[in-house]
Every structure is written in C-alpha cells, then in structure tokens.
Task: structure prediction
Amino acid sequence: MPSTTDLPGVTELLATAVGAVGGAERPGQVAMAEAVARAIRTGDHLAVQAGTGTGKSLAYLVPALRHAVETESTVVVSTATIALQRQLIDRDLPRLEKALAKPLGRRPTFAILKGRRNYLCLHKIDSGFEDEPEDAALFDPFAISRIGREVTRVREWVSDTETGDRDELVPGVSEQAWRQVSVSARECLGKARCPMGTDCFAEKAREEAGRADLIVTNHALLAIDALQGYQVLPEHDLVIVDEAHDLVDRVTSVATAELTSGTVTMAARRAGRVVDQELADRLLEAGDGLGMIMEDLPSGRLDEMPRPLAGSLAALRDAAHACVTGLGSEKSGDVDVQTARKLALSQLEEVHDTTVRLLGAWDADTANRRDVVWRTEPHGNRPPALYVAPLGVAGLLRDRLFARNTTILTSATLTLGGNFDSMARSWGLPAEQEGASSPTEGAATEKSVEGPRWTALDVGSPFDHARHGILYLAKHLPPPGRDGLPPSYLDEIGELMAAAGGRTLGLFSSMRAAKQATEELRKRTDLEILCQGEDSTALLVRKFAEDEASCLFGTLSLWQGVDVPGPSLQLVVVDRIPFPRPDDPLASARQRAVEARGGNGFLSVAATHAALLLAQGTGRLLRSTTDRGVIAILDPRLATARYGGFLRSSLPSYWTTTDPAVVRAALTRLDAASSPKESA
Ligand code: SF4
Result:
C-alpha cells in the first residue's frame, strides 16, 4: 500500500481512472489534470476552458482526490446545475472511488451537501409549525388547496426518503409548499436544542460531508459559506468551481434581498406569537404603509430614493427593531416557545436588515454605489416587490473566496472575445496585462499583475468545429424589430427546418418570439414543433431527442440546458443577439457604472453578456465527435455591426457563410445521410 507521501502522479492516476471507465487518453484532459495538480502545488488560482467532450470532470476530480488523500484535507467541488451534481455523485465519483482505491492506498470518500432549505425539516413537520402561505396564496383559495395537497405528498414521502433532499422528490413541489416543510439556516433551532436533531437530514448531510475527502455542493452554498458570517461548509483548502460561467449570477442571487408587504405581514404574524401584540401591530401597520407606497412607485430601477419611501422604510426598520428588542433574551426551555421565537427572529432580522440596506443604498454617488435597487410590477395576486442587489461581486469573491482557498474555475465557455479578461474581472481577478498574448490552446498563461495570482489555460475542444459545423450569418435579413419576429425571419426558419428535415433547436430571445414562431410555423409544416412551456422542459427535451424529425423552440433555459448528441439536433437557430433587455435593472446599472468610470459600458456588460449566451447556445450543436450541423444566426448585426467581431471571436472557429442556398444544401445532405435508408 503506497504511503501518502509516495502516491502516484496525477497523469498516472488519470490513466488508471480512464482505463477503468473504458475511455481513451485525451490530450486536453491530461493537460487540464496536470494544470490542476500544478495549481494545487503552487497555490495559484487557475481558470481552465475545456470544451464539451474533454472529460473535464475527471481532469479535476483525480488531482483533487489525490490532494485530499495526501494531505488529509477536504476539497469542495461546486456546480451550477443539479444535472452536473448528479453526474458527479451518481457516475464519476463512484467510478473513481473504485478505480483509485488501490493506487491511493484507500477508498477516497465523497458526499453531497446543499443549503439547509434543501432538506426536509423533521421538527417543522413534527411540530406542525407550518406558516400560512405568504403573498399570492394569501388571497387565492385554489393556491392554498394546491399547496395543501403538495405538503401532504411531502409528508407521505418522509417515510420513504433517506436523505430528505428536495431534489430527490419526483415530481417536485412548488416553492411555497416546500417552505412549509423546510427551514432556513437562520430558522433552524440547531442540533443541540432541536428534539429531532439526531435524525435531522440536514445535520446528517453535514456530518457526512465533514468526514468526506470531497464535497459536491452548489454555487449558492459556496457563496453563503464565503459571504455570510458563519461557516456552512467543513474546513477546506481547495475549491473547484465547475460551470464557472454561472458563478457571478449565482453569487449575485445569494447577495440579493427582496422586500414585499407580504414578507412584513408574515414577520408580524410570527412576532405576534411571541411579543406584545402592540409591537406586532405596529410592524403590521408599517408593512401596510410600505405596501401602499409601493403601489405608487414606478417599476424598474430606482436611481434616487423616492421621498415617501424613505419615511416608510425608516418606520419599518424601527418597528422591526422594536419587535426584536421585545423578544428579549432567550429564557424559556420549552421547545415550542423556542421554535416560535426562532421563526419570528429570523424573519424580523430579514426585514430589518433588508430595510437598513435599502435605506443606505442611495448614500454614495452613482459611480460609487455598491447596491442597485428596483421595483417589480405586481403580478397576478403578487404585490410589487423591492429588490436590492450588489452592483458587482468581484470584491466579495476576491476577499472571501480567492483570499482563503486555492480556486480552480472551469467551464466550456470562459473566454469571451478570445481571452479570459471579462470573466476574470467579474470574478475579481486581475485581467491580462496590456499587450499580453491571448491564451493559446494547451499553453498556460500566467497573470502577474496586482491581485491574486492566477493562471489561464484553454485546452481547446476534441471537436473539429471548422469541419463539423457551419456558422450561417443571415446578413440579408433586416435587423430584428421590437414587434415580434419579422415575416422574413419566419420564412427563413421554415426553409431551414424543411431542409434539415426537423432536427432543429430554436433558441429565441423571448418566450413571446418562441410562441410566435411555434404558432406560425405549425401552420406551414407537418414537422412536429415542441414549444417550451407546453410541458416540462425535461420531457420536451426527451421527446425532441427521441423523434429526429421534431423541432424544439424555447428560450433561456434551453440556451444552456440541452444536451442532445446525434442526428436529432443538426440545426440551431438563434433569432437575435441575446443582449440583456434595456430595462434589466442590474445590467443597465452595471453598464452605467462602467461608463461613469470612463469605460465602454456596452462592450463590458451588454456585449459580454450576449457573447457568453451565444457561446452557450451555439454549444448545443456539437455534443459528440461525430455530430455535424449548422448554427443559423438570423440577426444580421452579428455580420454587420462593429461589435459583431467581438461576438464572433467568442465562438469556436466554425466554417462561416452568409449564403442561405449553401446552408440549405448542406442541411439537406445531412438529413439524407441521417435518415434511415428506404428498403428496396
Ligand atoms: S436541526 Fe434544524 S433543520 Fe434539523 S430538524 Fe431541527 S430545526 Fe429542522
């Protein structure tokens, strides 16, 4: 048995692992594994772009497990999607556990850990401390009975589940129902006080994670661990962020707070169980006052503090503070009292902290503000809401993530406009130095300017993009309009779909456009067109994959979530460059802040956002080395606008044309080659 100081090198371990799973050596995978091992050794952070098919999960898991076993430490791997989490936990790690047990001298161990809200709370279920549903459901008897049915189903599930993990409940339940059976970290009584502490699912998951060499988690929990004042992940020294292109958005979500009159009502109701009714009524009144003022506020970004809002927020802050003071210090040993107190305190603190943050959001001048505030429209029974979100999370990540751990960031799309600069800046890492060359495939580029030291590596892709994919720029079409898809776009999509014999994924910039295309084209073709929203997305994607002659139209989640290798997908159509909407409060505020500092806001924010989504969306085409097909971008600005070059350089080097006849002929040939031969 090898001693931990004498373990085989990463390349050898990777070869063992790849051999055990019946794979072949891939140069990109080896280069990535060696770079990860180097980063672990030197402590420099690493960003690795690795195209689909590289086998990047093994390329980081092997050096990570070796490091954990060698140093008896814990490694954290974070993902954005449940699909990748499942792949790591159900497929990759069990295989590695077996394959590496002998060379590492023992079986490496792993566990999955999510936020407390992801697990059933046995105490909440047992004690009947269910909240009345807030907001919309308060007024909607149908919603209340639906939520009731869902909660009953979850209660029945308790005796079947071993993990209490929400993601294992099939079919899932609504957020409102899940809130009735789970608690946030702030609401939890803590294992020592909770009567169900020894059986608690969340506590068991934490304990298992504490013993594991490697913990798989999500970006949200990673962000909570890094940003909040308390530790939720076990002690660790290495973090691997897969799907790193999504890190900034997920961290921003965690750092975003919401305030509605419904939240205040709920806090007041909870407070009413444990403080003087007078204090709870004062909070309720302050919430009603806020509700009335919010009705009259304009929707969208609020650049100045609306005058009536200031007074209302101050009254709310003081009323919430009075309730917290009224709770006093904890004396009762009664579990029911403790539970009611904890539930009230968590909600009161949330209202108080959000109100304080909102009151301070407009203090600095525009160029130096840290937070952005906006109001959303009322929606159905849901009242208008106020949101406060950080303008950027670069500083937070630099101080709380990169300063504490060696961090490896990886994804198929990290270079935008040909380099890592945009991503690096958004993470709080220094961009490449002026004049430094763009990273070349396989060659690591060291970043030596001020800030955390990091290395960039693009291991390329096993796909031959220039031979297997055509990028069709429909230069002859008019620019996209404001009022839906122009008729010429519908004609173009219809002709391309017909040439491809179906096999089409339509990625639209809005649900409205996806529905319009579906309705219009269903009148013109016998090909089946599936449209997002008409069934669960997972089911639609399965149908699309099974029926080669079908088409699937949809919007954002399809841009990133479809993985259909083979002849069912040979054409990806994009209707317009996916810039953020001009009224997107966060993107527009970020753009304005860059401009206030003398930068190019459009390129730094809007074009970068579009480049990332385009790279993600068009990446749906080639999913295996034998795939072939066409990416059709109908928006002619990709060919004609000045920023078109930046966007095109964010895509792999497909063979490019503007000639529709050439593209239709290619699609027809592909269709003929893919269709089953007629029997003689
Ligand atoms: S320890 Fe917390 S999460 Fe677990 S059962 Fe008790 S209250 Fe619920």
